[in-house]
Amino acid sequence: MIEIRNASMLFTQKGFGKADPKRSFKALDNVSLTIPDGCIYGFLGSNGAGKSTLLRMMCGVYNTPSGSVLIDGEDVFDNPNAKAKLFFVNDETVQYSSFTLDKLADYYASYYDSFSYETYGRLVTMIGLPRNKRMSEFSKGMKRQAVVIIGLSCNTKYLLLDEAFDGLDPAMRKFIKQMIVGELIDRQATMVVSSHNIAEINELCDHAMLIHQGQMIFADEIDNIKSGFGKIQLVRRNSPITQEELANAGMSVMKYTSMGSVTQAVVRGTEDAITEKMANLDCEVSEFIPLTLEEIFIYELEGRGYGASIISET
Hints:
The protein has 314 residues and is of the alpha/beta class. Helices cover 34% and strands 32% of the residues.
């Protein structure tokens, strides 16, 4: 189990040999999260939200100046025993440019006692990557495939992926995801994946968290997240249902619009709870519409001032 407790991270730019507080940036702000064993956990967030910073803290690249990150009860920073349980696929691959794939396998086998050449050979054969060609000659997608193969071959309990599917064509994305899930299920491993592709997180993961400007917005099983929001449509002939009426009915409104006799609102709550509250409103027609994970993502960040047009482009 991975436990993140009240983790904060402040980056401060230095000028003339000393820190400049006016140019500091709080990448994480009191984040707490528990990632249970055997799950696939998706990290969602706006650009610069803190996803990559959190992943680097989880694998011990960054120390945690405030709070803690525990891997199976052990602090991960400067702890070889805890670090041996995880493999981090970074969003950058330039550091591997001088390696061939076989040399990269040998390099990681020298650090991970759990490295399996059998798994490595099988996965390379499955994908068909050249084993003795420098990775500087690989395409971006091929580099991603190569590092994922190495990560899976290390046979760690935890696999952390930062935008690992970036640069892959749709067919290869599907193949790589199926390969990863198959390998993880076989050994009951845990995967944490960061992605801007919300549909991908929804398809691949059973848990998800949303982070914005370094702060945790929500974290739960995806089914529970989706069951906690809904869109309602109400019709009243003489005048639309007002936002005040919705509030008086006990609804937590995230977004409200009305046109003519029709009112639409995005609200928090389960379908049963919202339907019960709608029954107390004076209207001719009422309808509950479930939200997708992408819609929840957009409405949550819109409510925090992040533009929907920007979100849609990501």
